[in-house]
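Could you join me in thinking about how sequence relates to backbone shape in a protein? To get us started, please write out a protein record for me. Would you write everything just below, so we can both look at the same thing?
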Amino acid sequence: MQIAILIEDVSRTGGQERVIAELAPRLAQNHEIHLYCLTARDIDEELIHVHRLRAPCRFTMARALWFTFTAGRAARRAGHDLLLSQGGNSLHQDAVLCHTCQAFRATLWDAHWRLRPPTLFQRLVRRLWTRIVVNLERRAVRACRGHVAAVSDELKRQLMAYHGLQDEDVVVTPNGVDHSVFHPGTRQQFRRPTRRRLGLSDQDFVVVYVGGQWLQKGVTHLIDALAKMQHQGAHLLVVGSDDPAFFREYAQQRAVEHRVHFPGATPRPQEYYGAADCLGLPTGAEGFSLVALEAAACGLPVLMTRVGIAGELIQDGITGFLIEGRGDDIAAKLDFLAENEARRRQMGQAAAAAAKRFSWDAQAAALERLLVQAAASRESGEACAATEAPPRGY
C-alpha cells in the first residue's frame, strides 16, 4: 500500500516531528511511504520517498496555511492509496493522527496572557489563528470518523468532548520511546560532565524542564516553586527553544535567577535527563508528552499535571507526583524529593519500569491496523460511488 504522510517538518528533535521520524521507517517495512513535508532531517531517503514542498515565506502562520492547502492536493494528484494527516494540517486526508487538541488548547490562552499581556494586534492575530486551526481540526476528525488516532486516552476524551466524536470514532495509539537512547544508564554517563559544563556540583538538586512553549507549559510555575522551596541548593534547567528574556526577569523578581539555567535547544535531551534528579512539567495541555516518557525511561521521577500521558505513566508517590499548576504544591513535592535521595532513586527505578511498556514498534503496529482499515473503507467507498454513478451523457 502507498501511504502519504503529511507533516510540515520531520526530525528527531522533539514533538510530532520525532513521532513521524520514528513511525515512518517502521511503516515502510510493509508499505511504500511517501512523506510530504517542508523540511526533513534524520530520514533514510533510500527507504522513504521524501517530497519537499517549498513554502513561499518563513512566517510561521502563513507557512502552515500554505502547507495545509497544498500538501494534500499534491499527494492526491500522485494517486496514493491513503493520506495520513497530523490533525487538521491538510484539507485532504483519509486518516488522522492527532498529537494535540487545538480546541482544548484555545481555552487556556487567557490564563497565559494574564502573565504576559499581548498587544491588541497580537491578541487579534492569535484569536483569528485559533479559530482557523480549530475549524481545520474539527473538519479533519469529523471527516475521518473511525480512522482517527489519538496518542493518549486524555487526548481521545478531548477530541470527543470538543468535536462531537463517539468512542468508536477514535483509536488510542500511544507514542513510544527509544530505550536504547533513553535508559537509566544516562545518569552514570552524563551526570558529571553535563553538570560541570553548567557549573553545577554533584550535590545540587536539579529539576529539568525540556521543550518549547515555556509560558503555556508552566515554566513560570517551576520558577515560583524554586523560590518557595525550603531546600536552597535546588536548580532548574530550562532546556529548549523560546525567548528566555521574560523568564530571566521573572526569576530575577523572585531572587532565584542564579539558580535558573537556560542551556538552549538540544538534539540530545538525554544528556540533561542524565544530569537531573527529576522532571518538572506543570503544563496546562499536553496530547501525550514524549518528554515525560523519555525522562521516566531515564530513571527520573516525573512531576506532571493530570494531562496527556500522566494518568497512564504516573502512579502518584511511586513513579512521580501528579501536581497542580501552582508553585506551592510543586515546591512541597520538590522539597520531598530533594531531602529523600533513597526514595527519589526508588521512584526513578519505578518510573523506568513503567516506561518499558511504551515502544515505537507497538505504536507503528496499532497505527498500521488503523491505516489498513481506512484504506479498505476508502476503496469500498470509491467502488460504491463508481457503481452508483450514472452513465456518461445521462
Q: What stands out?
A: The chain is about 45% helix and 15% strand. Confidence is low (pLDDT under 50) at residues 383-394.
